[in-house]
Specification:
There is one protein chain. The chain is built from 12 helices and 13 strands. With 450 residues, it is α/β, with parallel strands linked by helices. Helix 5 runs parallel beside helix 6. The longest helix is centred in the C-terminal third of the chain and has 43 residues. It is flat.
Amino acid sequence: MPSPLPPVNNSVLSVSALNRLVRDCLESAFPLLWVGGEISNLTRAASGHVYFSLKDGNAQVRCVIWRNRAQLLGWRPENGQKVEASALVSFYEARGEFQLTVESLRRAGQGDLYERFLRLKTQLENEGLFAAERKRPLPPYPRRLAIVTSLQAAALRDVLSTLHRRAPYLGVEIHPAPVQGDGAAARLASALAAAGRSTADAVILCRGGGSIEDLWAFNEEAVARAIVACPLPVITGVGHETDFTIADFAADRRAPTPTAAAELLSPERSALLARVDELQRRLQRVSQRRLAEHQQGLDWLRSRLVHPAQALLRQRQQLDRLGDRLQRAQAASLLRQRLALSTLARRAAGCRPQADTHEKALAHLAHRLQQASRGQFAERRMKLNGLAGSLRQLDPQAVLARGYALVSNADGKPLRDSLAVSPGDRLQIRLARGGLAATVDQVVAPPEAD
């Protein structure tokens, strides 16, 4: 896109027009780029926009982060912080100031760490370490938990207090390991392996919040593979809700905080006791209902229990009743069949053919057919005679017999106009009897129409 140029004539520009041209030139000449420096003169407006200067040892530039971008940072910029800003070069026309419009902001040095984080995440994801089908469910009612964290971590105190408050009956064993610094990843991996060999039902891997550098031990490949290799379900509670590490993706379950991880693995004692009481009441109600149903069934069976003689007498009476019903049914069936037979006999008598009546009808129809045939024959003969008379009138031979002749040229085509021939042409003349061959001596033109 070509940069806008100022006018070449001698017209006078207004300040607004000049600033607009400068802004268009700057914004079209510079793409989105990263700029590093130190934050100074930071102010937060009531509108939510953030204004600050980005400086180094020799220069500074004004910057602005609009509210919708500032809300997505996930951390709070402060004066004196070393940062890297992804920004667009711009120009504030109202005050004639050069400035950067910041799209995203990160702490200095985090770019390389974040790239390492993404590369390792992609590698382990391609290997299937983060696959959902590999994840194991957490035990609903664990009896013993293993905790992997630092003994000095505030997260450990939060987890222990939560477990003591919600489930004091739970056994806890701690596998200490540093959560940051050199060698922390290897120590965490060893502690996870030791926790996997314990008698616990699940493992909590936790630490408090911090910067990406503080949490980097949980982004190491050794820790991720140790989580996957652990035979027990592993739940992570690392940092705050907005912090995500490689360990969170490899774990069987991620909790937003260490306290939340403890809550997920510790059913509250009061809730469990209330559940037990409810189940006991339900069991009692079911038992009472089943007992009443069995007693009712026993009463019903007792009422059906009779003396064999009474059963035989009842069956004999039932047999007599069935015999009477059978005799009545047979008599009724026989009566219905007799009535049906007499009805069919009457219908058969009514359907018997009457020979005399049909013979008279046949003779009458034959007489009508003969009369109709004679009438049609006479009518057709009269029509044929009429057509023969018309045909005789149209017969060319009859016309010739009255003295007319049929004249045609040498090709045999009839002549209708004297001008169709010339003197010397040969003609053929057909008479009623025989014909003549003639030659044209003179052509007489037909008279003119009036």
